[in-house]
Amino acid sequence: MAQVTVRVGGYSHPVACQDGQERHLTNMAAEVDKRIGALKAMGMQFGETRMLLLAALQLADETADLTAENAALKAGGAVAAVAPAPMEGEAAPVDPAVLRRLHRVAEAIEAIAATLEAP
């Protein structure tokens, strides 16, 4: 198992990964760092945990969009650029698979936050 130190949001984090996955891990960390940099550029002044949460939520949102687009393409359907807004008083349709993925992402974020906040 390889050990890589990534720098995200101005902080260094040692992270283990499978041998041969070091470059992939550093690329993913660079993407998260880019998101945090964009949030800071917008004037957001939060702690490290909050910034990681916001960056993770952005990535989860993109993942959900891409997952839905991929499923539509596999089903042979057209992909809508923007989902139509529900009518007033009408609940937006919720895909159970997306909810499960978001739940897993939230759990992962909480685990990361707990690790970062641990002494």
TrEMBL record:
It comes from Roseomonas fluvialis. Coiled coil: none annotated. This is Cell division protein ZapA. Gene3D superfamilies: Cell division protein ZapA protomer, N-terminal domain (3.30.160.880). Pfam families: ZapA. Transmembrane segments: none annotated.
